[in-house]
């Protein structure tokens, strides 16, 4: 592999990206959720390069990205059954945006993209650079988050360069991601809609659009052992190397000499001085801001070689559901 270039999205950079993708190379692109590691979804060898670069298990399928809702049919079979079609229409109104739908796979999508499943995850991202790139591509783009498997998803071009240097030729820098957590994944079929991953679109919003009780939507999102509908939703995921502890309820956690703290809102001085390093994610505790800045703060603290990181928790409602999902997984490695 050649040296990795980070470039701002000029017209010529985008042209170069389309050429590289057409040749079966990998390109990192910004989306509104996290950065993605992109390949031509029609090209089996290019897709296999994604799995190798990320060290991702082959049984974990990829999301296919297209430029607009009317191109979803290039990757997925649109529902024809009346009520599933209604649900599709209600949710596809959220596109372009941070929503992924799992639908029956189109024959054109190679099995390696879907890990041999007969469903495919599809999404229309809203980041203007992703849109400009996808509009120029005569093929859909398969893209997981642009991090090594099991590490924290990247929300800046620098995060991608640090994790994937030498594995990609081009990183398109679209600035820090606006959402900061990955897309919400919903499976749609005749048995109804199921939330497979909470994300930047709240589960409450999905339930409201589908006019179903939220309990019916979320029944499969917990860390169930055994059969799991979305293989990426394993218990230990998004893990920093430094032990992470959630400051939940009245659970006592010792502050060791070299402890970092991620606070969702400003701490009082007495508490702040206990910590070796403090990251305050929002002045007002706004959970959208917390989500936007969380992964970058985790990465910064993880680079310091601290003994541990303490992090705030929030109610798992709205954006709080995606935040708590990621934090529980990030902390799972260090739980008994
Ligand atoms: O926001 C996002 O979704 C980002 C940006 C780059 O689009 N992408 C992303 O991809 O988070 P990745 O690969 O890190 O996570 C995709 C998740 C995995 O948990 C995978 O198991 C699940 O989607 N998935 C993909 N295809 C699936 C399918 N056919 N059925 C069930 N789950 C699927
Ligand atoms: Mg990922």
UniProtKB/TrEMBL annotation:
Residues 11-201 form the YrdC-like domain. Its main location: cytoplasm. GO terms for molecular function: ATP binding; double-stranded RNA binding; L-threonylcarbamoyladenylate synthase; tRNA binding. Its EC number is 2.7.7.87. The keyword Transcription regulation does not apply. It is found in: Cytoplasm. InterPro entries: DHBP_synth_RibB-like_a/b_dom (IPR017945), Sua5-like_dom (IPR006070), Sua5/YwlC_C (IPR038385), Sua5_C (IPR005145), T(6)A37_SUA5 (IPR010923), TC-AMP_synthase_SUA5 (IPR050156). It catalyses: L-threonine + hydrogencarbonate + ATP = L-threonylcarbamoyladenylate + diphosphate + H2O. One of its GO terms (biological process) is regulation of translational fidelity. GO terms for cellular component: cytoplasm. Required for the formation of a threonylcarbamoyl group on adenosine at position 37 (t(6)A37) in tRNAs that read codons beginning with adenine. Belongs to the SUA5 family. This is Threonylcarbamoyl-AMP synthase. It comes from Novipirellula artificiosorum.
């Amino acid at each position: 592999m050649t040296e990795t270039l980070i470039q701002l999205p000029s017209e010529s950079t985008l042209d170069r990206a389309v050429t590289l993708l057409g040749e079966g190379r990998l390109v990192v692109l910004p989306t509104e959720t996290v950065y993605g590691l992109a390949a031509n979804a029609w090209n089996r060898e290019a897709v296999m390069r994604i799995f190798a670069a990320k060290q991702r298990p082959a049984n974990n399928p990829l999301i296919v990205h297209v430029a607009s809702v009317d191109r979803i049919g290039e990757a997925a079979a649109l529902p024809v059954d009346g009520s599933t079609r209604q649900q599709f229409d209600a949710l596809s109104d959220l596109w372009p945006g941070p929503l992924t739908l799992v639908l029956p796979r189109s024959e054109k999508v190679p099995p390696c993209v879907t890990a041999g499943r007969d469903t495919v995850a599809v999404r229309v991202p809203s980041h203007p650079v992703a849109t400009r790139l996808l509009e120029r591509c005569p093929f859909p783009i398969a893209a997981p988050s642009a991090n090594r498997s099991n590490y924290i998803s990247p929300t800046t071009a620098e995060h991608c360069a640090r994790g994937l240097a030498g594995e990609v030729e081009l990183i398109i820098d679209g600035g820090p991601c606006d959402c900061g957590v990955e897309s919400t994944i919903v499976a749609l079929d005749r048995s109804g809609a199921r939330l497979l991953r909470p994300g930047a679109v709240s589960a409450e919003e999905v339930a409201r659009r589908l006019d179903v009780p939220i309990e019916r939507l979320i029944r499969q999102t917990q860390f169930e052992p055994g059969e799991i509908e979305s293989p990426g939703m394993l218990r230990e995921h998004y893990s920093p190397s430094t032990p992470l502890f959630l400051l939940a309820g009245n659970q006592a956690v010792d502050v060791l000499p070299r402890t970092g703290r991620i606070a969702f809102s400003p701490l009082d001085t007495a508490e702040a001085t206990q910590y070796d390093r403090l990251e305050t994610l929002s002045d007002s505790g706004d959970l959208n801001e917390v989500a936007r800045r969380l992964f970058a703060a985790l990465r910064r603290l993880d680079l310091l070689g601290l003994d541990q990181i303490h992090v705030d928790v929030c109610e798992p409602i709205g954006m709080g559901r995606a935040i708590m999902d990621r934090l529980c997984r990030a902390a799972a490695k260090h739980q008994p």
